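Q: Got a minute? One more chain.
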Amino acid sequence: MINEVIIWELYAFAVSFWKGVLLAWIYDNIRVFRRIKRHRTVVFMTVEDVLFGIYAGISVFVMCFEVADGIIRGFILIGIGLGAFLYFRFLSRLYIRYTVRIIKFLLKPVAFILKNVAHVITIPIRSFKRFRKDA
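A: Always. Here it is, folded:
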């Protein structure tokens, strides 16, 4: 029979591994957003990174509190790091590439519709500007 402490450590390692994968996936979604909507200044990217860092710190603290009574253990940190590393190594590139393609494909009709609606809505404004120039 396996000792209860070892079972708990394996459980804590598995939870921390998946937390690392989840945090890496969330950061990849930020990277997808950055590829779809280019940022003109570094300030916005810095704010995104700071907010992600705060979220990651709080979520790791909550996970440690739930799993290990708030004690940060080495194998928990290794689990988080290993989960994030393996995700970035094997899944990240494919996830970003295909998610960006899918979202851009889905946004093309929306952008076309919005562009045409904006064109129709601004007809009275353009007509008024022409009328003012002629008068």
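A: Residues 4-36 form the longest helix (33 residues).
Q: Perfect, thanks.
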